[in-house]
Amino acid sequence: MFRLQDEGVDIGLIVKASNNLLSKLDDAQRSALIFHIDSPEWRTWSNPEFLLSSKGMRLDEIDTDLRESIMKILEVTLSPEGYDKAVSAMRINGFLGELVDGTSVCNEFSYNFVLFGTPSTSRPWGWSFYGHHLCLNIFLYESQIVVSPWFTGAEPNEIDSGPYKGTRILTHEEALGLKLMQSLSPELQKKTQIYKQMHDPAMPEGRWNRDDQRHLCGAYRDNRTVPYEGIRMIDMDSSQTSLVSDILNEYFLYLPEKPRRMKLEHAMSFPEETYFCWIGGYGDKDSFYYRIQNPAIIVEFDHHSGVFLNNEEPAKFHVHTLLRTPNAGDYGTALKRLVPPQKQHFVWHPEEGEGVGNHASRV
Q: How far is residue 145 from each of residues 76, 114, 149, 252, measured CA to CA in Å?
């Protein structure tokens, strides 16, 4: 399913930016920032405005120089378009905080940054960046990269005043998904639409919840078994298959150009196992959910009801999107198993209080 390959990532540039940050930290800061690459804490990212797991460095609690050093790591890791999308999500979060007078928990820099492993051009390592409506988990090994799982959302999805007026995200994912659904024949639309209402009485217990709503693959959902639903890509014509490719390409936007192209080709190589399903209406003004899924990728798109804003029903200005890589692809787990081993001896030290230990010391 996954293999080690040259994806053309400039790992030297990413390591240089990471070491620049590390050179500016004191011992306490370094201890808070760096976790073992196999630490279970990598799986404790979350998307709410309040922290379910506080680790690493919080950008709104450090000085400008350190903050800019962290943002430089994001910039040299992600594609230019992906970096712009991430920064836009952060700015929209700041705009939301100003709208609801909640800038202490929602602001442009209310995000945590964590390193997993030691920045290296020859050994696996990675980083996590997470907070309200933006969570990125990055695995790196030599010239190869995994950006998965990730979550990106917005409430609202456009800034209509202030210095960042006109900033808008997640519109392409919405438009392409709707275009695909509307292009299907009535017979295929009926098969694709697994529930007619966004909170449908026909949904079994647990299919909808207040936090994730229709999402199945959000935070703390690692290793979840997600059923195939809807229609398969082989049921589609060539123009509709091209739309599937366009949608997945949009979800791969955080990746640099070469790995984006390679991973898209891989994701599109499962026509008999690629499923597309839909919840809600599919008129131009309808709110909706969709999922595209195969053995190599799961992407979800969902219009949500208000959390900070007062819409009780799902609306197009509150959007959640995510990407998962099933079959142990998340966090680069499958790739780590292929990396030539290096003998290490560690003792795990549990944190004070309850919970899984998350730090390791070399013996």
A: 12, 17, 12, 12
